[in-house]
Specification:
alpha/beta; 8 strands; 6-stranded mixed sheet; 149 residues; 19% helix; single chain; two-stranded antiparallel ribbon
Length: 149
């Protein structure tokens, strides 16, 4: 799995003009599922995301996690993160998980995040979504469960 994490002051997602997910301060996550991903990939990412220290303390240093700040999380499925763009100019998405597997793992990932007790919102898997956010910092990190980076 690959995740692009952005620290946000607020974010929301609309489908067909209707708000389907909205958060205040916290994290917005773009989540891509690879055909070879398993629940262990999601488990590693959940722990990293809940514990990564990207929120400032009283001295302005990033020493707090989303759990520490009781932040909120917006998850957006993003199969284009699993692209191969080495050959030619048109990215290939052949390594992205098929929808039946991807939605199962994406839902598992969200459910595991929910065990933290934080507010977890999401878009609609496979829908044409319009995502808006105010990146705070900006702070943006990329996680890959296969390389553990």
């Amino acid at each position: 799995m690959k995740i692009v994490l952005q620290r946000v002051s607020d974010a929301h997602v609309k489908v067909d003009g209707e708000m389907v997910g909205k958060i205040g301060a916290g994290l917005m996550l773009l989540v891509g599922v690879d055909e070879n991903d398993e629940t262990s990939d999601a488990d590693w990412l959940v722990k990293k995301i809940l514990d990564v220290r990207v929120f400032s303390d009283e001295d302005g240093k990033m020493n707090h996690s989303v759990k520490d700040t009781n932040g909120e999380i917006l998850c957006i499925s993003q199969f284009t993160l699993i692209s191969d763009y080495k050959k030619g100019n048109r990215p290939s998405y052949i390594k992205a998980a098929k929808p039946d597997k991807a939605i199962q793992l994406f839902d598992y990932f969200k459910d595991e995040l929910k065990t933290s007790g934080l507010k977890i919102e999401s878009g609609i898997f496979g829908a044409d979504m319009k995502v808006s956010l105010n990146n705070d910092g900006p702070v943006t990190l990329v996680f890959d469960s296969k390389t553990k980076l």
